[in-house]
Amino acid sequence: MKRIYIFILMALSLSSCDDFLTVESDTGVTSLNYWKNASDLDAANYGLYATFRYNIANNSSVVYRDRGLPFDVLGIWTNPSNNDLSRGWTQTHGCINWNNEYKIVNEANLILDNIDRADLTGEQNDFFRGQALGLRAYVYFYMLQNWGDLPLIVHAEDVGMKARTPWQEVAERCIVDLREAISLLPVADELKDIEGNLITSKQAVSSGTCHAILAHLYAWKAALNKEPDLLKQAILECDSVIADKSYALANTIHEVCASVIPGNSREGILECDFKDTQYDVKGWGAYMAGFCQWWPIVPLTTPSTARRGLLISNSTVYKMFPDPDDQRRNEYFYKLDSMAKVSTVTTKGNAYVQKYQRIIIHESGNQKGQIKSYKANEIIIRLADIILLRAECKARTGDYAGARIDLNRIRNRAGVKDYAGTDADLQDEIQDEREREFFCEGISMRYFDCVRNGNYRERLRGKFKTLTEQDVEDGALFIPVGKMAFFNNTLMLQTPYWKANGYAY
Hints:
Helix content is 47%, strand content 3%. With 505 residues, the chain is mostly helical. The chain has a domain at 284-376. The strands form two sheets. Strands 1-4 form a two-stranded antiparallel sheet. The chain has a two-stranded antiparallel ribbon with strand order 2-3. α8 (122-147) runs parallel beside α10 (207-224), α11 (230-243) runs antiparallel to α18 and α19 (400-413) packs parallel to α20. Mean pLDDT is 91; it is low at 3-7 and 14-29.
């Protein structure tokens, strides 16, 4: 059933004719004869997960979008990292096209519009509705972080021309939806499928997932919309997640690499859950690993094998991870200290990244023995993220003692002593810790941190350093709207900053 869901949902999502919506068919799927029972909703939900996974974390959907990578050599990421987009992204480039995200929204809307037609138990109805509301809210939050204002569409049949809704209103709709999802869904440890089996995949939305998304959403809105009172709400949402016994920090950084990065650990909260199949093997994290990792992780390579794409020097790593006791120095990087002493003829002065340590090898064919991909989910939110986000929010509200406790919890897990600096430097230290802990994780994670903390001029590169307040007001921190959004839509407007910088549409 689930293998054919995509054809069913394509048929349903493309339907807009009244006759199609009201006439039963003996030979084809219609909107009326499909949504009848729990199996139909289960297949639709499976489709929603697959679309979410493919369009949020698959490399073909988000390739090169990350603008905050901390590498010294960026290659194809240079222009995005310098906010010099018109040099690398045309008006039709996939990175500025939000169609992929709206595919997820549309599948969630299909479920929400039709769920009441199915014969479901109350628990089944709550589960499927909660999944659709939670994933749709996350996707809208992700979109408003990237584009700012955007069309708000909450029904699958709403296919007319659409203007951009202020991102603040989109955020408020996300908050309402997440609150409803929380009321419908249990904690992660009690989440079950329609057959009563416990769900272990962190791609499935639980009440804890929704609290975590809300925490980030409140922190974002507090900063970008200048609503500092929302920081208290963000802290409360973090409290809910941290108190949830479904989640626990891995004991060591080795466990982070060995268990958390591969996916579905107790530290994970929201992930794109990739499987080792011909259709579904490689997410954004694995794609990033392919650009920054080489020897000794990749088979058939040597220390002097030319690496491609993303390079980080030993000196940059030492600056980022200054404490010699930090376990991340030798878990995220292969033998950092000893390899730093190897001749630069071999290393070119670069560190050897190894954060993604579990690989998948081709077992047959002409690529036998070569790397196929990595055993790595896309970790969107994990518990360490929420603990450090709470530290950030506490520091901003003047609770320096509480912020230190949260910060030190993550530092200590990495083998680093308690923070001994001043309160004045605490906010920067928390952000530094986020950069260390989540090195090479997430999509634009470091970039969103810089935007939320307002220090993009200090921490980012190129044109970010020279942005004026008017540039920021005009949308310079967002990405331009792609040309496809303007087709048959006279209400669509380009972001002012990007209209003045090479994007007419």
